[in-house]
Amino acid sequence: MSDHQDLRSRLRQLRTGRKLSQEKLAAVLNVSKSLIQQFESGKLTPQDDTAERLDEFFGTGDEIRKLAKIEREDRQPWLRSLVEQERRALLLRTWEPLVIPGLLQCEAYMREIFSAVPRNAGRIDELIATRRERQANTILRDNPVALSVIIGEIALRRGPADVLKEQWGYLVDAGHRPHVKIRVVPAEAEGIHVGLSGPFSIAAMPDGRRFGHLDDQLIGHPVTNHGDLGHLDLAWEEIDALALPVLQTRDLILRMLEDAK
User: Fold this and answer.
1) What whole-number distance in Å separates Cα of residue 16 and Cα of residue 14?
2) Among 32, 95, 248, 259, who pairs with 244 as Cys (CB 3.0-4.6 Å)?
């Protein structure tokens, strides 16, 4: 039996042992019933804080936290590493030349992005749920992570018209949050620059450490070497110099929304 099965079967065993319905357990944890269902079906893995509450409620020490950690590392070690960095960061800086960054995607846009990858067939809803959970645990929580994003203008114009309109509105709303700064490198300013090498993120942690992440078609690559992080810092500075300020970026997106009416 895999670690993944061990976790979900253990959660069911603990819940039924207390003669609790999924709905009642959800109420105790102050989460949705659907989240409990997804934990027990294996579609989602509890994040550390939720796993800790499960351990406290069932009196299982740190058993659930350990099983959840094993499952996360087994299923998506590269992504989970990035997710953990996102959750604990003080500041996230993200550059995306071609698509809207995941933390700022509306659900319709997520569906388009995930559906474009053949190997995602049959797991679109699971991937959307995971991404929405990432958003909830970073920029949508009570003490949100500060997010600074720079996007290539082409990313704003790539996709079905109805989905883009929804996504533009989502970006405008997100940009009104005080901890979210969204800027765009306008098409006329792009030319050839270092950012065309690909998307990346840099996370600044509370203890002063920093982590980078390079995205690609397969698993992505964590960056921890000081020299490599220095290269990403220089790349960010070059891209930052090309980007419109926050208010001009918002005006650009609002004009696109107005033109689309």
Assistant:
1) 6
2) 248
